[in-house]
C-alpha cells in the first residue's frame, strides 16, 4: 500500500490544532538531528530525514486536560500514574484522529526499553527541535563540580522550567527535506554564573523548584497543580479523592 503523504506544515498544524487547546506544544524535528547529538546506544533506527515531533506539556495541561480527564472517568481508584495515563490518552487520540492510515511510533518520556535505557532522551530531543535549550555541564566553561555528576536541564524561553517533555512521535516512512530547517533553541541563560546556579538548583534542590524560575516566565503551575506535584506520588490518590476527582471508597478498581 502506498504511504499517505504529509508535509511538515500539515503535521505541525494538525497536531497543534488538536493538542494546544489541551495545554501541549508541538515541535517538529528530523531524526537525523537527534542522532547527531546522542551516542550510538541511544540512536533511533530511522532514516535521518524521517519526520518526528516532540510534545511538551505547559502549565495549562493540568487544568485543561488532566482534571477534566479525571472528572469524566468516574474512577474509584487509579492503578498507574494518572498524569501519564492522561498524556497517553490525549496524544494517542490526537495521532489516530489526525493521521489515520499513517504509521506513527509514539514514545513517552517514562517508557524504558528492556536495556533499561529510556525510549528517547527527552531533553536532547527538545533541544534539537528548538523547543527548549538543554543546559549541561559541557555548557559551563571550566565547570566547578569536578567528577560529581550533574544532570542537565532544559529551559523554555517563555515557560522557564514550568513544563515537561512528554512524548516523541515518529512518522515512519515520511521523509522531509529543506522544508524543515533546524532552528537553534533560544539560549535564555547565556551567563556562566547563571548556568552554574541553574544546574545547582536542578541537581541539589530541585524540590524547591527555584530552577524553574531562572528566567521570567509567562505562566507557572497553579496552586492546585503545585499541591498535586508537591504531594508524594503514593499520596496523590488521596489528594484527588479529597478534591472529588475519585469517587467512593478504595475497594473498587478502574476499568480502563
Ligand atoms: C532517568 C531520569 C531521571 C533519573 C536520572 C537523571 C538523568 N538525567 O540521568 C533521576 C531519578 C535522578 C531523575 C530525577 C529528576 N528528574 Co528526571 N528523568 C529521567 C529520564 C526518564 C531519562 C533521563 C536519562 O536517562 N538520560 C540518560 C543520559 C545519559 O542522558 P544525558 O545525560 O542527557 O546524555 C545525553 C546528552 O548529553 C546527549 N548529548 C551529548 N552531547 C550533546 C550536545 C547537545 C547540544 C545535545 C542537545 C545533547 C547532547 O548525549 C547523551 C547520550 O548519549 C528523563 C525523561 C526522558 N525520557 O528523557 C527524565 C527527565 C530528565 N527528568 C526530569 C525531571 C524534572 C526530574 C526531577 C526534577 C524530578 C521530577 N520529575 O520532578 C529530578 C531532578 C534531577 C535530580 N536532581 O535528581 C525532566 C527534566 C525536564 C527539563 N526541564 O529538563 C525529564 C526530561 C522528564 C520530563 N518528562 O520532562 N530523572
The hetero molecules present are: cobalamin
* Overall mean confidence score, pLDDT: 93
Return residue spans where pLDDT drops below 50 for at least 5 consecutive residues.
251-256
Q: Fraction of residues in helices?
A: 25-40%
Number of domains as seen in the coordinates:
1
Walk across the major sheet and give the strand order. 1-2-6-3
Distance, first to last CA: 33 Å
Describe the biggest sheet? 4 strands, antiparallel
Structure annotation, total helices: 8
Report the order of strands and helices. Answer: HEHEHHEHEEEHHH
Can you walk through the features of this model?
This protein is α+β, with helices and mostly antiparallel strands and 256 residues long. It has helices at 8-19, 31-37, 60-71, 82-98, 122-128, 192-204, 223-230, 236-242; strands at residues 24-30, 50-57, 104-108, 133-135, 153-155, 164-175. It has a four-stranded antiparallel β-sheet, with helices on both faces. Strands 4-5 form a two-stranded antiparallel ribbon. The longest helix has 17 residues, at 82-98. The two termini are 33 Å apart. The model is unreliable at 251-256 (pLDDT under 50). The chain binds cobalamin. Residues 37-39, 42, 109, 118, 120-124, 127-128, 134, 136, 151-154, 161, 164-165, 202-203, 206 line the site of cobalamin. Its main location: cytoplasm. Its cofactor is FMN; FAD. InterPro entries: MMACHC.
Amino acid at each position: 500500500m502506498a504511504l499517505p503523504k504529509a508535509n511538515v506544515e500539515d503535521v505541525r498544524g494538525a497536531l497543534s490544532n488538536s493538542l494546544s487547546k489541551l495545554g501541549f506544544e508541538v515541535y517538529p524535528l528530523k531524526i537525523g538531528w537527534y542522532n547527531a547529538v546522542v551516542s550510538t546506544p541511544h540512536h533511533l533506527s530511522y532514516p535521518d530525514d524521517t519526520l518526528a515531533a516532540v510534545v511538551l506539556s505547559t502549565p495549562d495541561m493540568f487544568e485543561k486536560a488532566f482534571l477534566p480527564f479525571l472528572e469524566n472517568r468516574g474512577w474509584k481508584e487509579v492503578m498507574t500514574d494518572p498524569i501519564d495515563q492522561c498524556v497517553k490518552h490525549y496524544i494517542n487520540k490526537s495521532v489516530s484522529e489526525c493521521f489515520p492510515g499513517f504509521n506513527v511510533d509514539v514514545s513517552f518520556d517514562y517508557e524504558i526499553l528492556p536495556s533499561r535505557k529510556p525510549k528517547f532522551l527527552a531533553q536532547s530531543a527538545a533541544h534539537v527541535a528548538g523547543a527548549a535549550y538543554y543546559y549541561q555541564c559541557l555548557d559551563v566553561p571550566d565547570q566547578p563540580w569536578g567528577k560529581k555528576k550533574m544532570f542537565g536541564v532544559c529551559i523554555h524561553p517563555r515557560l522557564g522550567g514550568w513544563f515537561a517533555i512528554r512524548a516523541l512521535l515518529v512518522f515512519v516512512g515520511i521523509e522531509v527535506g529543506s522544508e524543515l530547517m533546524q532552528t537553534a533553541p533560544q539560549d535564555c541563560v547565556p551567563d556562566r554564573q547563571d548556568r552554574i546556579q541553574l544546574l545547582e538548583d536542578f541537581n541539589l534542590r530541585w524540590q524547591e523548584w527555584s530552577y524553574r524560575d531562572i528566567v521570567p516566565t509567562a505562566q507557572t503551575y497553579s496552586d492546585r497543580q503545585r499541591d498535586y506535584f508537591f504531594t508524594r506520588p503514593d499520596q496523590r490518590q488521596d489528594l484527588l479523592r479529597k478534591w472529588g476527582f475519585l469517587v467512593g471508597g478504595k475497594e473498587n478498581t478502574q476499568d480502563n
